[in-house]
Specification:
The complex is a heterodimer of chains A (283) and B (324). Chain A is an alpha/beta fold and 283 residues long. Chain A is built from eight helices and 15 strands. The N and C termini of chain A lie far apart (40 Å). With 324 residues, chain B is of the alpha+beta class. Chain B folds into two domains: 176 residues, no CATH class; 120 residues, no CATH class. Chain B is 26% helix and 22% strand. Chain B is built from ten helices and 14 strands. In chain B, strands 3-2-6-7-8-9-1-10 form an eight-stranded mixed β-sheet. The longest helix of chain B is centred in the first third of the chain and has 15 residues. The radius of gyration of chain B is 21 Å and the shape is globular. The chains are: A alpha/beta (283), B alpha+beta (324).
Chain lengths: 283, 324
Amino acid sequence: MNDAASDMQLPHGAILLDRRELSPDTALFRVAPEASSLRALSRFTPGQFIQLSVPGAGEIPISPADLPGADGTLELCVRRVGHVTELLHAAKPGQRLGLRGPFGTGFPIREMVGSPVLLLAGGLGIAPLRSLLYHLLRHRDDFGEVTLMYGARQPELMLFREELVGLAAKGELRLYLTVDFAPQEPAGNFSCAVGLLPDLLKGFSFDAGRSYAAICGPPALYRCLVGDLEGAGVEARRILISLERRMRCGIGRCCHCAVGQKLCCTDGPVFRLSDLEQIPEAL
Amino acid sequence: MKNAFLKSTLLAEFLEALRRFGVLHGPTVSDDGVASFAPISDASPLRLDYGRTLIPPKKYLIPFREEILKLHDGIYHPAAPLAQDMVLFGVHPCDLEGIAYLDRVFLADRPDPCYAARRARLTLVGISCEPDDFCFCSVPPGTAPCDLYLTALADGFLLDALTPKGEAITQAARELLTKAAPQPPACRASCTIEPQDPQLRFSDNPLWDRFAQLCLACGACSVCCPTCYCFDVREYPNLAGDGVRLREWDNCLFKTHGEVAGANFRATRLERLRYRFLHKYCGFSPLEGVVSCVGCGRCRSACPVDIDLRELIETGKNPGGEPA
């Protein structure tokens, strides 16, 4: 079968290249897709998701943590939390995987050109925002100031910390890190604030009227932040929210990911706050 | 052939003629009194006076469980859909409308290969019906989407071929048919449910809480709904290291339906009833604004605690009024 429709539910081959531990339960997997995926992946927009199959285990939606490399290599940041991710974490380099997508809408990167961008990430929410961040940095002159505020539960759960600090040291972005708890931070380590993201936002002055804000994190994070962002003067249509739902099919059929009348897999996963205001159950 | 008429006494011969177009299935009633669509071996088990089958004809197009992929040596392959030429005889207009809705879901924009394969080989023969107390038909008379439509009269059936397939059937059975006098279109009660305001799911109607307290989350309303198609995708490995990926009916009344890692977006029955209301009476993207209730009455008759979500609509129309 080679019609477009069967392609939609048939995973293409991919090979696990390697992995890098980011925290006790989260690793960054580099995955090389076979040639059949490359054309679709060349159209990847930050914020879109792919469906990753671990043969024999099943499929999970993952938003890549970086733009695909020139050879299509994907970086997937995955926490060990369920059946499929458990088996992915147990996989060895060279293991065959499956790949569908990319699916859904990404961040409106063309529209954002010329504007300052504020990225707000909580926990694993850094993964989709990292691909947006790298898009912004690779087209640095096209965008205004780039700020990343990133909150994690505790220092050792903060992902990509050295990398982000390195980028900030080069002056590529303004970086604010915060943790909920900081039990024993070894002396000399890069310090970060203790508190929640909304606390960081309170003391932050920025050109809210021209800014885009992109948020990704646990549901509680959105509820805390959107009011503050609007209060600061960010337009609701410029507050971009990446929602998490259980996308099973990825093509708008299985109906697990409905957000109000919208489907997260085809209308999202990136939504504008202005589109969610009539959907109280979205956040 | 216009205004073709089939005498009741020739029905058995007509069914034989239909077999040329595929395996014949139609309404039957089992020994324990359950009406269901099942294979028709000869005219005897056919029960055209049925009210409604427990499971709607969606089972022929989206089986309860089906293989979509086969896994071999770490590579996924499409599973060949099990499709055969089939004639489904004696389908009521509401169920035909249900199939038309499923067509919009599965055939528009990137057709689903399994559904498309079955649908292409399915011939639909509709039949007029007498609504009972549970029905709330929303199909205007005379528009039932099928290949051939039979209007039941006192001593036989008036045939309307609505597609080339339907024409082919009347051709194949022409020796059994006589010419009838032109008939006015059959008239019957029709109560169309208009698309509802999605904000109605947050109305302060006390019925919401009452239904949420009553609902057993058994999912019967969704299983028996001719337009409910939510599915889950599961993968089963075998000991050889290969396996299959299946999709099977899921149910929005089940708690697992809204689960994600570490959270549940529809953890309460109230949230799940709202979700159901939204999908049935407001529609999901890209069928936003399309009502998927066809008025077959199955959910009302199957619900063990007599929940009828339509009451929320009727009270919505008259704030403060009692449900009809």
